[in-house]
Amino acid sequence: MKELDTQPQTYLVTGGAGFIGSHLCELLLSKGHRVLALDNLSTGLMSNIEPLRGNPLFEFCRDNVMSEVVLDRLASQSDIIIHFAASVGVERIISNPVETIHNNVAGTEAVLQAALRYGCRVLVASTSEVYGKGARIPFSEDDDVLLGPSCRNRWSYAASKMVDEFLALAYCHEYDLPAIVVRFFNTVGPRQSGQYGMVVPRFVRQAVRGAPISVYGDGTQQRCFCDVSDVIRAVELLSVHPEATNRVFNIGGQEEISIGALAERVVAVTGSSSPIQYIPYDQAYAPGFEDMARRVPDTTRVEQLIGWKPTLMLQDILERVRDHIAAEEQAASAS
Ligand code: UDP
After folding, report:
1. Fold of the domain built from segment(s) 10-188+227-253+296-310
2. Residues 19/164/156/148 CA torsion (nearest 10 deg)
């Protein structure tokens, strides 16, 4: 295994042009690390990494994680692999279930094999979706999970990510691969796209445009949002921590809010006159769609290991997203 110390490392970030990936690349470069970003731009955007492209420590490769030759070349140069490339977003998952399952499972296995060949540490991104409809709040890493039936597409994402977790931990146990699993809970912030269903950028863009805010269901479902800047800080610290391997960590915020109340907060933060519109789930997604009523992370484990806590509250997060989206809308209308 390659020796890790406080010296600059070479990181391979799969999904490096995505929302969380691009923020992480930026952070790692600011710390003097070399960053190789791999992204097929299925949901990632070149504009997310445009400011990084002049940096001599940054290399971008447009390809799929399942492209063996490319992945092999990048892994051979890396000390640490951060595996973010995945099919994400509830809407996308519902409309492309085969692609979701295949990308998530085969992509992760390809990355684990490449990490093993070159003695890299690997951090695999998972999701709070794996807790499914679990009712014991807050969710902690060793809780049982309760997924819906396989006839409901939505659960294929959770199941595929669960397999990713099993794979990562199995590579740890059987082959001594230093692997870490993180479960992200509703990460939000500048550059997140609302195109695939994510609620905060959708609400903020609707509000900035004066369009109706689309609350799905009755709006009583609750979530905890965490700013991407806090999330990537945890990822960076965990990626090099000697005691993080072979473990699963929740990463998320603690401030719980209902989606109905979130719509009101967004209206207030943007000074918008948008009305709030309630849309039944079967119209918003598909007949029989099942949502999670509450999703709150227990973050004791990550806090105990690396002293991590989120620093930004929902108000700060919404202001950051508002400023980013307002600037984008202004630029679009000027061009
Ligand atoms: N949601 C909503 N309106 C939208 C998009 C999402 O009311 O335009 C709801 C969604 O049904 C869920 C919550 O907001 O209850 C969070 O959705 P998101 O897709 O951001 O994340 P999830 O927690 O479902 O993974």
Report:
1. Rossmann fold (3.40.50)
2. -110
